[in-house]
Predict the 3D structure of the following.
Amino acid sequence: MTGSDLLVSQPRSQVVIAMDKFRGTANAPALCDAVAIAAQRHGLNVDAQPMSDGGEGFSDAFDGDEIMVEACGPRSEEH
């Protein structure tokens, strides 16, 4: 077995990409996509998940429909 045979038989590395937005520059999904493309070009398996700290860009980090609901305050008062 040669050195190149060993490289081919080894499993590919798995990378988790969890990016938050860069304010004023790019949202979390766009950043995850860009980093994932670069990692895949280097032969890595990628699991990308946009993230958010709960501030601006929170809804950009998740797929799905936005659903509006009414909620009460901490003391059960209605708003």
Summary: The chain has a mean pLDDT of 82. The first strand starts at residue 14 and ends at 17. The helical segments are 3-9, 28-41.
